[in-house]
Specification:
Length: 461
């Protein structure tokens, strides 16, 4: 099959842009290290234009070959991995800026443009592209849209989808379609744009994205708030917005994570004070005067709350963010591996969710820790494991099962920012009502009657 398929595809995009994919190729993996989803793609195709993507999709659809869209491969859920074979369509050559209109706060770019480039272009024009998922040097804007990626600033600015005005997308059986546009208001049809955002390559291949931008904030100020314990930490996270404050970031580290990371505390000559069992990373951004007022109000409020031990202003914000972004690596290094699930609790049940997660892990005899975007209840719930100890891995899997059940019971979500991909397939059915799940599946059938668009991914059940 392989050579014939590759010869046909070569006629569409040029032989130099069609490659074999040996099992160990990076195109057969993504960034999800732990469960290591292995692909078995028959070819990777690197189209240079939307028309070439259209031709490849049309060829695959006609020949019953699975299509797996791929961005930067930084996903952690196996979404970009061809688990059922087929053709990987990598967007990496499609990185043109088709339109950049600083005065209108917008740009239209091809899907393969790295996220960091989108942010840089905006910055160089005095603007800001607000979404800030990690891995932005490698991830692509198309991948961000396909996973509806978020980051610390999603609290104030929303996730990627909030900034997408339009999409150019190739749908089965090989149609180039435009949805949305620059009209600032548009209620004319069903919101197909939103349907495609976060669809993880299961409804179509995104080839270009119209993005809205914002004027860059004049300044930003971050601090670390150190508290005695989880309950007080979660109370403080609720108290800030309740007082009318609108932080740009409100992240947290629980006591275990703080203890693990205390050695590299990012503020000079300081360590968390004795008794610190929870930390918040708090940032305000905007006009200088407003930020200064917000900081003052927040500090006054925090000063009155029980359990607040200290507020450390970040004299070097870059060091703070490096410290925060290093959590993954430092936590992994504790026991050689970690199993981390991206879940969401309603903010008012965050303390309960974190406490019950810790109980679940300790019942299985595993050390756990958690950190994340507390302002949105988005938690990276983590257990530390020895990667060689099979029994620990089995117990960690059981922790995951109980965690997902807990999340649903408390009214949260089984996926906050890393998508569903292959690894979380089937989990949505526990969260949604039966008829909603059927609608989910009906939409998939409508877009993809042959089931060839990224098969096995984002399955509701
Ligand atoms: C260190 C690290 C930090 C991370 N931090 C964050 C974070 O803060 N927030 C967050 O949300 N995620 C985060 N992630 C996860 C990941 O970076 C995001 O999901 C990102 O949006 C994936 O983009 P990508 O271009 O790498 O897509 P890929 O990994 O290549 O693909 C992801 C999914 O999107 C689909 N897809 C990709 N491109 C297209 C396209 N053009 N058309 C249709 N479907 C497409 C794929 O089929 C797949 O299902 C992190 C990952 C790492 C490794």
């Amino acid at each position: 099959v392989g050579p014939v398929l590759r010869a046909d595809l070569s006629r569409l995009v040029g032989g130099e842009h069609v490659h074999e994919v040996p099992p160990e190729s990076p195109y057969n993996r993504d960034a999800g290290k732990r469960a290591g989803v292995q692909g078995r793609a028959e070819a990777v195709v690197l189209p240079g234009s939307a028309e070439e993507v259209r031709a490849v999709v049309a060829w695959c659809y006609e020949h019953d070959v699975a299509i797996v869209p791929r961005g930067g491969g930084t996903g952690m859920m196996g979404g970009a991995v061809a688990v059922h074979g087929g053709v990987v369509i990598s967007l990496e050559r499609m990185r043109r800026v088709r339109e950049l209109e600083p005065a209108l706060w917008r740009m239209l770019v091809e899907a393969g443009l790295p996220t960091s480039e989108v942010k840089r272009l905006a910055r160089e024009n005095g603007l800001m592209f607000a979404p800030d998922p990690g891995a932005s040097e490698q991830s692509q804007i198309g991948g961000n849209v396909a996973t509806n990626a978020g980051g610390p600033h999603a609290l104030k600015y929303g996730v990627t989808g909030a900034w997408v005005a339009s999409l150019e997308v190739v749908l089965a059986p090989g149609e180039l379609v435009h949805v949305g546009g620059w009209a600032a208001k548009d209620v004319a049809g069903y919101d197909l744009r939103s349907l495609l955002i976060g669809s993880e390559g299961t409804l179509g291949v995104i080839t270009a994205v119209g993005l809205r931008l914002l004027p860059a904030p004049e300044t930003a100020h971050a601090s670390i708030v150190l508290l005695s314990d989880r309950e007080r930490g979660c109370e403080a996270m609720r108290a800030l917005p309740a007082a009318g404050l609108r932080p740009s970031v409100l992240d947290f580290l629980d006591g275990e994570t703080l203890a693990i990371m205390a050695g590299s505390y990012p503020l000079p000559q300081q360590q968390p004070p004795p008794g610190a069992g929870f930390a918040l990373i708090l940032e305000f951004d905007g006009e200088r005067e407003t930020v200064s007022t917000e900081r003052r109000t927040a500090n006054e409020l925090l000063g009155q709350l029980d359990g607040v031990l200290r507020v450390d202003d970040a004299t070097d914000p870059d060091a703070l963010w490096r410290w925060r972004d290093g959590a993954n690596g430092v936590v992994t290094a504790q026991r050689g591996a970690k199993i981390s699930e991206d879940v969401v609790f309603p903010v008012e049940r965050l303390a309960e969710g974190l406490a019950r997660f810790e109980e679940i892990a300790s019942r299985q005899g595993l050390q756990s820790c958690a950190w994340g975007h507390g302002g949105e209840g988005n938690v990276h719930a983590t257990v530390l494991v020895d990667p060689q100890a099979q029994d620990e891995l089995a117990r960690a899997a059981q922790v995951g099962e109980e965690l997902f059940a807990l999340v649903v019971k408390l009214g949260g979500s089984v996926a906050g920012e890393h998508g569903v991909g292959y690894l979380k397939r089937g989990r949505l059915a526990a969260q949604w009502d039966g008829p909603a799940v059927e609608l989910h599946e009906g939409i998939k059938r409508l877009f993809d009657p042959k089931g060839l668009m990224n098969p096995g991914k984002k399955l509701a059940r």
